[in-house]
Specification:
By secondary structure, the chain is an alpha/beta fold. Helix content is about 40%, strand content about 20%. A seven-stranded mixed β-sheet has the order 3-2-4-5-1-6-7, sandwiched between helices. Strands 9-10-11-8-12-13 form a six-stranded mixed β-sheet, with helices on both faces. Keywords: ATP-binding, Cobalamin biosynthesis, GTP-binding, Kinase, Nucleotide-binding, Nucleotidyltransferase, Transferase.
């Protein structure tokens, strides 16, 4: 099984990818064909911000039984390592993240440079052949409007080429939107979210969300679905009004304001769900595209993704609006 997982910044794609590779591994154990459970890390540890991300991912997979292998370049050489040769059974492999590996291959001195796509795809084919199950996490980096430098344009072209070819090879492709898996190719995995840790802890689903790109008609869709509400603008409303209004739009800008003011985010989703049940939240998806160069913008994008993922988990219904058309991601009448 080859499964590609994509999504925006802070979307919950890493947690989902870990969940499914562990599921595949358990199934392999039941079949008596399980090799090692391997995590291939591609992020080069440099700088405090990067180290914090690495530590966070280490904590996420702690006690899950992963063997971690670092691979910053030369994926095609990984399958030939002694570690793999010693394993009598085919391993279950999670590689994260393809966007980092691609950047490393292009820009690092020992990388493949202009041959990055060719080398990476050969490495993927090798891993696919020698693994029982392979899950690769990637990013969608082309959904922004900023004008690219020559170097960034080449990076986008290479990663897009790798993503397209991976998707063609894959048995399953899943986009994760605020923690909700959306099937792009293959069998649906949406029902995996039922019985998740948050639900076991007694979290109540009380909210409703409408998400999508800018100017897609989210508010018109929400008003058609939920009627005329008392709306507030997340860009300008008093921060406390999120607990009293019926609907809030530009919630991503509400998060930006909280971050600028140094407000505490821990427990925010629980607090909103508990104190304002029934709230309708409209939010622009801002997690795709290239990682911002500005440190605040990076933190904002990541924080917005994580908070909205927590809110979606506490929502009865989540719809995604594209060109004015609502696509149900999570439905209160029928759990999907």
């Amino acid at each position: 099984m080859f499964h590609v997982v994509t999504g925006g910044s802070g979307s919950g794609k890493s947690a989902f990818a870990e969940e499914i590779i562990c599921k595949y591994h358990r199934e392999s154990i039941a079949d008596g064909s399980a090799g090692n459970l391997i995590y291939v890390a591609t992020m080069i540890p440099y700088g405090e911000e990067t180290m914090q991300k690495i530590h966070r991912h280490q904590m996420m997979r702690e006690k899950k039984g992963f063997f971690t292998m670092e691979c910053y370049t030369g994926l095609e050489r990984l399958s030939k390592s002694v570690f793999f040769q010693k394993d009598p059974e085919k391993p279950c492999i999670l590689l994260e993240c393809m966007s980092n590996l691609t950047a490393n291959e292009i820009y690092e001195p020992d990388g493949a440079g202009i041959h990055a796509a060719e080398k990476i795809l050969q490495g993927i084919k090798d891993l696919k052949q020698m693994s029982c199950h392979l899950v690769i996490v990637t990013n969608e980096v082309c959904s922004d409007s900023a004008e690219d430098s020559k170097e960034m344009k080449f990076y986008k072209q290479v990663l897009s080429k790798v993503n397209r070819d991976m998707a063609e090879m894959a048995d399953r492709v899943t986009e994760v939107v605020y923690g909700i898996p959306v099937t792009v190719k293959g069998k649906s995995f949406r029902n995996m979210k039922e019985g998740a840790a948050g639900k076991e802890m007694g979290q109540k689903e009380t909210l409703r969300m409408v998400v999508g790109g800018a100017y897609q008609g989210k508010r018109k869709f929400a008003e058609k679905l939920y009627g005329n509400l008392h709306w507030v603008n997340g860009e300008s409303c008093p921060l406390e009004e999120v607990y009293t209004c019926e609907g809030i739009y530009h919630f991503e800008k509400y998060i930006r304001r909280m971050l600028k003011e140094g407000r505490e985010f821990k427990g925010l989703a629980d607090s909103i769900a508990r104190n304002n049940p029934g709230l309708v939240i409209l939010v622009d998806e801002i997690g795709c595209g290239l990682v911002p160069a500005d440190a605040f913008e990076r933190k904002f994008r990541e924080q917005a993704g994580r908070i909205c993922t927590e809110l979606a988990e506490r929502s009865l219904r989540v719809d995604r609006v594209v060109c004015g058309v609502g696509i149900p991601l999570k439905n209160e009448e029928k759990r999907i």
